[in-house]
Design goal:
single chain, alpha+beta, 8-stranded mixed sheet
Length: about 130
């Protein structure tokens, strides 16, 4: 069911302030930056071995990330698990009593199909299912 930890999402106030720590101090390669309009975020991807770090900067005060930072401050936002057949995984989670935030997959950064589990079902951790097409 789970192939790997695909990425760890980290909420940051600004990429400009946060990226130097990851690229200059930790020497992690920057894979790219993109804006995901539907989620109101600007995302930077960094390679950390077999896993990526996904820095999430809000582009609007209404974004989920802006609200997260306002409530909890910067830091780990979610853990994304790589899966195949995301529709089947969503159905399986539902059958096992897991409350899904996303009942259907949606498009996330990098064109991945994603769906989040509610933290109330996962011991307080926001868990994302992530299927990369192609």
């Amino acid at each position: 069911m789970i192939n790997k930890v695909d990425h760890i999402g980290i909420a940051v106030r600004t990429l400009d302030d946060s990226l130097p720590f990851y690229t200059e101090v930790l020497n992690l390669p920057l894979l790219g930056i993109e804006v995901v309009e539907s989620q109101k975020v600007r995302v930077a991807f960094l390679k950390a071995g077999e896993t990526k770090l996904e820095l999430l900067e809000p582009t609007s005060e209404e974004s989920t990330i802006a609200k997260f930072i306002e409530k909890r401050g910067e830091g780990i936002h979610h853990v994304a698990l790589g899966v195949h057949s995301i529709e089947e995984r969503i159905k399986e989670m539902h059958e096992k009593g897991i409350v899904m935030i996303d009942k259907e997959p949606r498009i996330g950064a990098g064109g991945a199909h994603i769906a989040f589990m509610h933290p109330k079902s996962t011991s307080g951790v926001l868990v994302e299912l992530c299927e990369k097409k192609g």
